[in-house]
Write a structure and sequence with these properties.
OB fold (Dihydrolipoamide Acetyltransferase, E2P), five-stranded mixed β-barrel, five-stranded parallel sheet, 22% strand, single chain, 14 helices, 428 residues
Amino acid sequence: MNKTYLIALMMLATPLAFSGEIVGKVQSMSSKGKVIQYLNPKTKEVNVLRFTDDTTLESAQSFSDLTVNTKFKATVNDDNIATHIKRILVKLPPEQVIDTDELSDLIDSGESRLFIGDARPVSVYNVGHLPNAQPTPATELAKNLDWLPKDKATMLVFYCGGVTCPLSSKALKIAQDNGYNNVKAYVEGYPAWKAEMYPSYVSPNWLQGNLDIHNVILDVRETAKMGVKGSVHFPTSALFDMHEKWNTEKFPVGKRTIFDVRDKKAPIIIVSTQPDDDEGIEAYEILTAWKYKNVSILEGGLLAWQQQDKPQQDVAPELTYVKKPKAGALYENDFIAAVKSNSATIIDVRDSDEVAQGKLKLSINIPLEDLEQHLDQIPKDGKVILHCAAGARAALAYTTLTKLGYTNVTYLDDNFSAIVKAAGITLI
């Protein structure tokens, strides 16, 4: 056999060892650290990849478009640095797509023959959904057509997690295949709805199962005695006054907090008498403007809660909130104890310009994007604590190190400056 022909035949029969391409779903991303943590949809493994200022983007205007759950395809080099990243967008004919403003106007019009289906998993729907939306998870819809209206002329609108989420288009196709002839997909989805500060809702049944210290249940009525069990009172009028005062002082919205809750991902459920009360909507808009990412309004309001005989008690004047534990996360008291006792190697993964404003005396500064080039400074046989400004880059660093075999590493999932200031720790 001809040698050249044999080599060519072998090349056809044997896949390349390294394709240079990955497909993932963004879990978190740091523009400063230039790192993306992603889930491999096939293997379900969590990995990280790096990018640079030279990384080209396709179907995205900036890296800020790579929000949580964004699906992407990337070309990477041998150093696991992405040279090209492309968002995998949902593509539908224009006549099958409805945008945010059109859907909002349709809802406001009170159109009775409108059905809004949330094509995401029910567990995701429960913690925040569009007004009047019904759970219709696309993965189960074909076997549960009774979820849809009997009148097949009803306008159906399906949505999911944004422009790269295929569930809305999948639900649309299922409905069309079963005789519904007025179906659209709200492709921009839940992230765009929230970005426009349109209200999001949670169901009373979900809240009843989550009356715990990991959720902020905020009663915004002007006067409140008896309310949802575990709720805390803070009237919208007081919230508005704070907002106006801070606007006058030009205090950054990202630093504004309620009850000193620094966790901007804290689930905040707003309770007013009825869900469309002005005080509830206004409180929602203010807290969303303050960059709280998971604000919702109790569906049906307190009136529906009481009618359904759900748990009530006296509304508290002070809040008790504790972040829901995450794998590898370290919280305020343990971090302070470790700093004061010098019982761990503390790695500061902030940028050098941030560190110049003040750092812990014994911490080691290794910017996130340089972490893998300085592993010799990070011991494998001792306790390691990672921190950044607010926790996002430290979490990415934690994923990177655990993937590299570090087993005694944790990260501060909190606001570094606020913690050291409250604890009286001097920075250098």
